Amino acid sequence: MAETMLAVVSGIFLLAGGVFGILGGIGLLRFPDFYSRLHAAGITDTLCAFLIIVGLVIQAGLALVSIKLMLILIFMVFTAPTASHALARAGLAAGDDPKTVESEPMGVAPLSSPGDPPSNS
Amino acid sequence: MTTVLVLTALAIFVTMALALVRALKGPSVYDRIVAVNVIGTKTVLIVALITAISGNDDLIDIALVYALINFIAIVAVLKLSRMRDLAAAGEGDITDG
Question: Taking Cα atoms as reference points, which of A44, A61, A59, A45 lies closest to residue A12?
Answer without folding.
Answer: A59
